[in-house]
Amino acid sequence: MSNNNTYVVFIVGDSYLPGVIALKRSLDLVDSAYPLTALTCDCSVSTIETLSGAGINAIAAEAPAIPNSIRDLNIVAGRPRWNQSFAKLSVLALTRFDSVVLLDADMMVLSNIDGLFDAPSMSAVVAGRGAHADWVDLNSGLMVIKPSHALYQNAISLINSLDENLLSNFRDGIGDQDIFQMLLPSWNSEKALHLSERFNAFQDCLAMYDSSGYLNFKDVSVVHFELAPKPWAYRIRDWLNAVRRALHYGSLAELTALRRYRALLPKA
């Protein structure tokens, strides 16, 4: 395994800063040998300084120009934030690193996952498949990438090739995850690139998986807090939703994950 590897987290603006700090702390707790690098987009000076103080190197993400047709589609679909997500694709061009493990800013690492750097490029998880048997596409929350300028240019070419006819397939909006999927059209059938769900376990699936034996909580390596709002902004009703799932499935897995995660978040 090369020493020239890094975990990468993409952060837009300042609102996800608590999640990035918690992610870094979780990596430290499992004795990861590799650093966490933040790809930043529209972050304040204060956030950049906080990242640096936490031992996280910040690299400004290169936001590619996207056609107005895509921007308008995401706005109409109620997902204008997805227009900023395309800057996440700049991870493909981080050729200063041999291998990158991309992690979302709302994730918590529970066990050492350094071995993922040796996985093939474009390895990812069909996250949530245990709850949705018809799901077959990758989730870009966790991906293994061997950066190359050719790969990045392919992504940019894909974006620019999306005419109105092709965009008609994305009525609910289009973001970075769709481009990652389209970069390798055969991904769904290339099982060697499919990582176990333990590397990207959705928060609201934890209790069901643990109760059914599909994925015991003790075997989960990465929890993905994919729901909104995020745990650092929880109110009573959000905790109640988690309690309802715990009671329904007879498992404390989700509540345990939330408790551990809250302990990692910076104090307000």
Automatic annotation (TrEMBL):
Organism name: Collinsella aerofaciens
PANTHER family for the chain: GLYCOGENIN SUBFAMILY MEMBER
Alphabetical list of Gene3D superfamilies matching this protein: Spore Coat Polysaccharide Biosynthesis Protein SpsA, Chain A
Name by which UniProt lists this protein: Uncharacterized protein
InterPro entries named in the record: GNT1/Glycosyltrans_8, Nucleotide-diphossugar_trans
